[in-house]
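tmp note - Phosphoribulokinase/uridine kinase domain-containing protein
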Amino acid sequence: MKETEDCFLKVKNDYLSFLRKEKIFDKSTESKILSLKKTYIPISFWIENKYKKKGKTLFLGFSGGQGSGKTTVVKILKIILKKFFKRKIHVSSIDDFYKTLEERNKMSYAIHPLLRVRGVPGTHDINLIKNFFNHIKKKNFKKIKLPKFDKSIDDRLKKKYWFNIKEKPEVVILEGWCVGAKPQSNSLLKKPINILEKYEDKDLIWRKHANHKLKKEYKKLFAMIDYFIFMKIPYFNMVFKWRLLQERKLKKMSHTKKKIMSYNKIKRFIMFYQRITLQMLKDMPKIASVVLTLNHKHQINKILFKN
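out:
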């Protein structure tokens, strides 16, 4: 208990400062403090214990429905792990490993038009992530550059803007909506679950391609992860509501003001994610070592530590 209280006192100011910077004003200060004590600090202690148990770089997968708040939670965990536990943390978003617009355009002509749209398995450069993980496992770590993706231009930035990783991380968190996703059976793929699949993927080419990628490259990547943490949303319809809020925030923070999605574009966009998101809501609570359950108010109201 004393160690938990020490942690709280050490990170409290940085935590509240971060929330102000991120313009998170939807909760009272009292509620924010409660979240720090009851949610973020316990998860951080769990991560620290897992790192100590392993004794070398810990690889974590962090997933949840779009707009669930994954990125915010991971940033808070990073603050605590660095400030209190003095850990070297690296957080990678799977979004930063999207294939370039040019690569996706080529796939859209060669395989299926829907592959131009970023998001589903098959639109990430999985080899880049695997190479990064393998690079960390080497005894003699050398600095490495990792890609940076700008959603406002729907493309990867030039190498001069990439992330510089100068020292070997002790904890690596791979955060993304489909991290840990499992493939479906062919019988489940046959029935379209929305109008996008019904009218734009009549021959099942697009969803079979994504499913095949989950069976192969993504399965190998996810096997490199030690533990998964999953944010369980109440139901899929919340993705639209939360994604809309996310885009509005992106619009405020973007310097270019380009390609921020409208109401109708978001409705269409989330259809790309629907099938895998629904399957993950069934699978991940069984797979993940930590399950964070969200209520309809976007609040974590339950944490389950399974091992």
